[in-house]
Amino acid sequence: MKLDKTVLALAVTVVLWASAFPAIRVALGGYGPTELSLFRLAVATAVLVAVLPWVKVRLPARRDLPRVLAVGATGMSAYQLLLNWGETHVPAGTAALIMATVPAISALPAAVFLGERLGPAKVVGSLFALSGTVVIAMAGGETGYTLAAWTVLAAAVAQALYHFAVKPLLRRYSGFEVATYAMVAGTTLLLPFAPVTARAVLAAPADATLAALYLGILPSAAGFVVWGYAVARLTVTAATAALYLVPVTALVVAYVWLGEKPRLVELLGGLAALAGVALLNRRPKSLAAEGDRSAEDVSGVPSVRGTAVPPRG
Crossing angle, helix 92-99 and helix 245-258, to 10 degrees? Predict the structure, then answer.
């Protein structure tokens, strides 16, 4: 029964994060990228704060505040702004394929600053994944699409920096605590956009506002909680495999919800990116067994090493 609940939680996470990409497209019908960024983060923060009476969350130590601000700036504020702007031109499914390269991008700072070894397979995997992204970015043929695709890739870089910067915090705080800190910090940094966001809320059509609320409540707030529950009970290998389904599921959801049909060249670039990420995360059996035994760190979630970081929308 426990396994069934865990698999269900993992499946729910995949669907939630995959559905975020088309939901962003719908929300952008009534909100600009900056207004949507603040509105989504504010809703997610409100949800997380609302459950604090039932979930123990410590205040971060003063020495950790600069890092908390950094993870909020990269993984929340910058990530939301860049992804939302990118999706003004890039289809939802295509954006999900680009975001799948986050693990490949994360490998570089991990190797430079954390001393994680990049063997030949990981180097080839990273290059393969990034080359797939270049194919996607150049597929549109028009300047607006290409610039937006590179902006989505910049969002992937911001997300990769977040997962690199957050690792020391996860040694001292729970995954829920870190997510809450980052969400509050990211929201605070975007507060200068509060007046224009308030005006947008009053003027936006109902479907755009509902999509924005959905993004804040489910993919952002609930997604983190359900993801933490699932990966704390699964091996690294199983969690990593499930994450490959996020861009694939996003393509399906975008087709059903928005009628988006990706072009063949975008699909080929996406397949190259996913193949590269799969190669990047491939480990020898001995290391895989050791990593699976130690998958859950003190935070209750898997460490960045050996697992694909979530390509959330």
Answer: 170
